Amino acid sequence: MAQLTASLSEPRKSPVQARSTASVDAILKATVQVLLKVGKEKLTTTRVAVRAGVSVGTLYQYFPNKSALLRAALRLHVEEILREVEKICVLERGQPVEEMAEALTRAFLEVKMRDPKTSRALYAVSSDVEGAKMMATAAARVNEKIAGLLKSAPERLTTDLHLMATVLQSSIAGVKRQLLESDMPEARLEVMQREQVLMVRSYVRACVGQ
Amino acid sequence: MAQLTASLSEPRKSPVQARSTASVDAILKATVQVLLKVGKEKLTTTRVAVRAGVSVGTLYQYFPNKSALLRAALRLHVEEILREVEKICVLERGQPVEEMAEALTRAFLEVKMRDPKTSRALYAVSSDVEGAKMMATAAARVNEKIAGLLKSAPERLTTDLHLMATVLQSSIAGVKRQLLESDMPEARLEVMQREQVLMVRSYVRACVGQ
DNA sequence: TCATCTGATGAAGTAACCTTCAGATTAGGA
DNA sequence: TCCTAATCTGAAGGTTACTTCATCAGATGA
Fold it and tell me: Protein footprint on strand D: which nucleotides are under 7 Å from a CB?
């Protein structure tokens, strides 16, 4: 039978034929494109639909409202980043902590700078639509992974690992945000990166029990 | 004569009598209160006016539109923080770099945690209304001040001071943001703070030419 | 006291846009 | 081929909220 509880964030209908899957994809892509082109203030469901090459009705067949649409787009982006970070956490298992810290820092930058405009546009959205809640959840998952990674380090770390992970994450995210907001030239970006690496390395070194 | 160029962000009219100054104050206070109570999505100019105890018309006498209103409220908040940081930059002049870094870290936390709800509410706004531009300007000013402060340190710093300042700022801001978004208990907050201090101290120590 | 300027009011105009739904179109299988 | 279910369409309804302006009230100073 039908779902008993129809959440407002879930799609109304799941695509079963190929064409509808294509529609959903197109709509989500269009959402980001419109966001980039006109900004979230002027993003309208109709505009997204047109851009996606479908009608508004179609959009509303898969997304119960505008908010859910934006959330879905944001979720896609966040999950991509999540996967990337988790990949690093597997790769770096057992490495020296300083290596880990550097790898994480570089991975974060790499994934955010892969498509900086999109990142920026979506982060602007995240302060609406309970995006904050979603980001918090994602951050918690990353935190878990990083703490796990740190646990595998050969060094004896005296600090609480989750705490350490949180500080690392937040600090890295802070610098990345700064880089996103002020679109620097490539060159300056690398310098900044190096500096940040110095910071996280210094920090984790200080956390190693002597 | 009248202004030749009436910017959309400037007030239409400057208060000259006492009662109008009171209105403007009330409106700005009300803006923050409404933001806190109902969130920016449901903030309407009428609601703000009612809360301020004036009519919508009065509001529009001093703010050309909703956006300008929000910007003004944000500006007040940002400038308060700015003043606080600049104060620290004066106080810490000539101290050892590690002291400076710690003082900055603590000052940032203190000022943001003085009224966390307001901070959070206003930051949500800053992604609209060109808030980003304003934040960037503020950040640049802070950067200047911090670089100046670092210059006064007794140690010989090999790194470019503006770069160092930027990294410090962003990192500190990142952790603060995290703290704001996840409302932690007081206790955990102090622990986090200590950890962050460790990080910035380690970093600036690493920047000291040996 | 009166004239004049500043300030306040809030109903009404206007615009934008979200969302629906009844009917048209297309795909998949019997 | 034909039937049924899935999908698409987009004009129209309805809501919400921004902003204006004609008018009223209060202050200032001569």
Answer: 6-12, 16-22, 26-28
Give me the CA B18–C1' C5 separation in Å, rounded: 15
Give residue-wise pLDDT tens across range A2-38: 332 334 455 666 777 778 899 999 999 999 999 999 9
Every domain of chain A and the residues it spans: 18-64, 73-207
Per-residue pLDDT band at B11 (split at 50, 70, 90): low
pLDDT score, position B129: 67
Of A186, A58, A62, A78, the closest CA to residue A135 belongs to: A78
What dihedral angle (degrees, nearest 10) is formed by the CA atoms of B112, B143, A119, A90? -80
Is-same-fold flag (A18-64; A73-207)?
no
- CATH code of the region A73-207: 1.10.357
Q: Which residues contact B181 (CB under 8 A, 6 or more apart)?
A: A132, A135, A136, B120
Q: What is the DSSP string of B5-64?
A: S--SSS-SS---SHHHHHHHHHHHHHHHHHHHHHTGGG--HHHHHHHHTS-HHHHHHH-S
Given a contact cutoff of 8 angstroms between Cβ atoms, the answer to whether B52 and B27 are in contact is: yes
Give B-chain residues touching A171 at CB under 8 angstroms.
Answer: 171, 174-175, 196, 199
Closest partner residue to A191 among B128, B163, B175, by Cβ?
B163
Model confidence pLDDT, tens digit, residues B37-69: 999 999 999 999 999 999 999 999 999 999 999
Report yes or no on whether pTM surpasses 0.90: no
CATH architecture of B18-64: Orthogonal Bundle (1.10)
Cβ(B142)–Cβ(A96) under 8 Å? no
pLDDT recorded at residue B210: 61
| Whether the Cβ atoms of residue A64 and residue A8 lie closer than 8 Å to each other | yes
Distance CA B174, CA A169 (A): 9
Pick the CATH number of B68-207 from 3.90.215.10, 3.40.830.10, 1.10.357.10, 1.10.3720.10: 1.10.357.10
User: Which pLDDT tens digit goes with each residue over A84-132?
Assistant: 999 999 999 999 999 999 999 999 999 988 888 899 889 888 887 678 8
Q: How far apart are CA A61 and CA B120, in angstroms?
A: 34
